[in-house]
Amino acid sequence: EDKKTLRVRAIQKLGVSDFNPSYIFDEGSSIEWSPPADKLASPAPGMKLKSGPEEFMGKPVQVVEMDGTFDNLQELVYIESALKNTNTKFYGELTQAMLKLADAPGSNNGTGLLQTLAAFAIRSIYEKKTAASKAKA
């Protein structure tokens, strides 16, 4: 078992208003995916992504997990194509956001990726709540 590479999990609570959890490929499915090395450069032992429903502290959640690092952040767009409900405004926004922070700690692993997904989710919830508030006023 690889002990050098950081495994990061995003635990997303289900049933939260104005929030739809991210997942890989197919909502509700349990998926473990290792992207091929010719499409995503990653040092050995490669990269693994997992997604699926779980229970956390007695509550249903959706988990997205990444284990591995990127050698080339521009190739993140390949991972972005597999992620759904990312709350991005356009295809490639996730990759662009990661490239802007390329020198930040965690930018080449799941820490940066999942923090960026969380930031987009927060932005989406904020926009929905403020739009609803303005509609009431």
How does this model look, in words?
With 137 residues, this protein is α+β, with helices and mostly antiparallel strands. It contains three helices and six strands; from the N terminus they run βββββαβαα. The chain has helices spanning 76-82, 93-100, 110-136, and strands at 7-13, 23-24, 31-33, 48-56, 59-67, 83-84. The strands form two sheets. The protein has a four-stranded antiparallel beta sheet with strand order 1-5-4-3. It is globular and about 55 Å long. The N and C termini lie far apart (56 Å). The mean pLDDT is 87.
Please outline the helices and strands.
Elements (H helix, E strand, L loop, with lengths): L6 E7 L9 E2 L6 E3 L14 E9 L2 E9 L8 H7 E2 L8 H8 L9 H27 L1
Antiparallel strand pairs: 1-5, 2-6, 3-4, 4-5
From the alpha-carbon coordinates, what is the Rg to the nearest angstrom?
Answer: 16 Å
In sequence order, what are the helices and strands, one letter per element?
Answer: EEEEEHEHH
Low confidence ranges: none
Query: How would you name the oligomeric state of the polypeptide chains in this document?
Result: single chain
State the end-to-end distance. Answer: 56 Å
Characterize the biggest β-sheet.
4 strands, antiparallel
β-strand amount:
15-25%
Shape annotation: globular
- State the total count of DSSP E strands: 6
Q: What share of residues is helical?
A: 25-40%
